[in-house]
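thought: fold this chain, then report.
action: predict
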Amino acid sequence: MDLQSLVAAHMPNHRRPSQMDAAAEDRYYRNQITLPPPLGLRLLGLIATTAGVTLFLAGVINA
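observation:
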């Protein structure tokens, strides 16, 4: 008996999920979606830092 067959023989049988109607399925997947936190100032700071470093490097290269 190979290793894969041995492992498969000893794995527990998990119960299949119950059938859902369309509305229940929509609610399930709607609850699974998580939106990222608002980026606002964090994103603005990242953009400003990137622009500053880019301008700094452009000035160093041209000097």
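thought: worth noting. Residues 40-62 form the longest helix (23 residues).
final: tokens above.
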